[in-house]
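Before the break, one more example. Copy the sequence into your notebook; we will annotate it together after we see the structure.
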Amino acid sequence: MLGCLSARPASARQSEPAPPSASPAAAPAAAPAIDAAAFATFIEDVRQEALKRGISKATLDSALRDVEPEPTALERDRQQAEFALDLQAYLRRRLTKATLKQARRIWHENHSLATRVGKAYGVDARTLVSVWGLESNFGRFSGVRPSVPTLATLAFDGRRANLFRGELINALTILDHGDITLDRMKGSWAGALGQVQFLPSSYLAFAVDFDNDGKRDIWDSLPDVLASIANYLKGHGWTPGMPWGYSVTLPKSATDAVQSIGLRAEGCRASRELTPPQPMKKWRLIGLTTADGKPLPKSSFDMSLLKIADRAWLVTTNYEALLAYNCAHTYALSVATLASKISK
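Here is what the structure looks like once it is written out:
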């Protein structure tokens, strides 16, 4: 899954995937060659740090003894370029008729479990299924790359060494806890784990043993998968009963008022494309209406304005919880849209 690393998301993706018609602004830089001797020295240094952190010698012997670089991780890392945003094309690509049909079938089959998990954490059950679907195609794909070599390679690389070194230590900690065996610890090219695509730090903070088998298994246990997603969203501000937002119409007469509100100065890139939260009453006074021209609903929730091309939305902190999972409006809007259609 993609996300904004500086905001410590669930996963290691940095920007939206390219829509079908998008093309990178420049050719990606080639990944550097990996010096085998320097890599071996680096791994020994990590081993010593991990021992000081209390990770057992047996775990480190197993995980690091024969670890080799994963050049593909660096190649993929170098391909993370800025893409032209075409929201409609992206939504058409991700939310096809086949995807919607599959999502409704999955919802029907797992309605009871998703509802139980949703009630336990105060998170909308349809949103849990939607996140699961977009992260791993409803469990069909959760990554095939061995996580320790992948994280070790990214940590050895100079671009974001501190971040991935920490995630490598976290991955070793997970192995030491016994939640997963080394041969089953697989994920994305960026080290995101399992069907939920958590970075190891997010796993340690938010993964849940919902089926009570003694392990937090985000690879093969659907109860643990859905509960871990719910726990992550709850931990990032999801409020029970709050809508994620509304599609709205922004009249030309509101342009000056919106510009005077401005955009946020902090947060990940997508967060900085939102206005500061404002009371719904203020948005009504400015002249915003629902997308079909009706008055905005009365609400006690403050909401932020999001504009993409000729479309606009008022969004709540529940939408921002989705951005915490993956700081890309294409992603958050895809999750929200799929969730709204999942039971129709």
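Confidence is low (pLDDT under 50) at residues 1-8, 13-27, 80-84. Strands lie at 145-146, 186-187, 245-249, 289-290, 304-308, 311-315. Try to locate both features in your own notes.
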